[in-house]
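Exercise (ungraded).
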Amino acid sequence: MSQGDEPSFETGVVKKFLYLNRKAPYGTVYALEVLEMVLISAAFEQDVHLAFVDDGVYQIRKGQDTKSVEMKSFLPTYRALEGYDIEKLYVEKESMEERGLTSGDFVVPVEVIDRAAMGSLIDSMDVVLGG
Amino acid sequence: MKFGILVNEGPFNHQASDSAYKFTEAALAKGYGIYRVFFYYDGVNNANKLSEPPSDDRHIVRRWSELGKKYNLDLVVCVAAALRRGIKDELLAEGFRISGLGQLIEAGIQSDRLVMFGD
């Protein structure tokens, strides 16, 4: 490390990072703190992927309003990911359909893949993080 | 083989910290390297030196400190997650340090395997 406690942002190594989102937003802190990891890994110029499975598909659902629960909405952060060159977003088809959602219900463009393909995607990653 | 360890849950409330500790201890005993242990989400509570479990129970915080001392482990607590939960430098048990999330990403890059413990 070159400067005190600051991590080196240039390691010369690019790994495939997958953030596997499995929880609905706001009920637990996982979705918010996953986003914080996502943004930092972008700063390290890693090959970042996001996947939404189970109740995690609700994280990017349109039409959220957090005012009455007094929590800051982090929905705009998903929209901002494109600006960090994070554009590989996947939604599991079965999770989406089980919840009555369609690909038009999300605030960001996603690739809908089935459960088997999701398994292959996870298997192809170097580092899988999530919550 | 060099492992990175990520602890995502607090002590006592959840098995994750126990499992992470046992995994780390076993890996070290077998001669594997541990690049870093990173504490995130409620996992930051594993570093709270004010933790005082009953004397007939395992002392999770102290156990991490002792393992860290024995093997010179890098025990890193996420600053953003810690501040939210009131974990600050003055509360840190021996051997822990507070730093940024970049330390986790770096562990993911530098380790052969990053093993995550939590839900």
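Further reading is listed at the end of the chapter. For now, observe: Confidence is low (pLDDT under 50) at residues 1-6 of chain A. The radius of gyration of chain A is 15 Å.
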